[in-house]
């Protein structure tokens, strides 16, 4: 059944827009380190036009994407999953965990 229903804890890739990738000198397939206050993951970069820099209050805000599960096997080191990065805090307004949007640093390895 593994091939019909992949494990939700498979490794994921890091997805970035072209503008951020160019700024950091990261190319498609490069290994990157994504870190937060809780830890870090290493993954292969997927540079795509689908993720763009946002303009918020006149400032450029870079966005990346890391799938929570259903990633491809072998694109990241075993054990490096997005949950390693997620903060252990709740949103004061909605009373829900902040698992979907939080700050990270990205660097080429």
TrEMBL record:
PANTHER family: FORMATE DEHYDROGENASE-O MAJOR SUBUNIT, TUNGSTEN-CONTAINING FORMYLMETHANOFURAN DEHYDROGENASE 2 SUBUNIT B
Keyword Zinc-finger in record: no
Similarity remark: Belongs to the prokaryotic molybdopterin-containing oxidoreductase family.
GO cellular component: cell envelope
GO molecular function: 4 iron, 4 sulfur cluster binding; electron transfer activity; molybdenum ion binding; molybdopterin cofactor binding; oxidoreductase activity
Enzyme class name: oxidoreductase
Localization in the cell: Cell envelope
UniProt keyword Cell membrane, yes or no: no
Sequence ranges assigned to domain Molybdopterin dinucleotide-binding in this UniProt record: 19-102
Cofactor(s) needed: [4Fe-4S] cluster
Name assigned to this protein: Formate dehydrogenase-O, major subunit, selenocysteine-containing
Domain of life: Bacteria
Keywords associated with the record: 4Fe-4S, Iron, Iron-sulfur, Metal-binding, Oxidoreductase
EC annotation from Swiss-Prot or TrEMBL: 1.2.1.2
Alphabetical GO biological process terms: anaerobic respiration
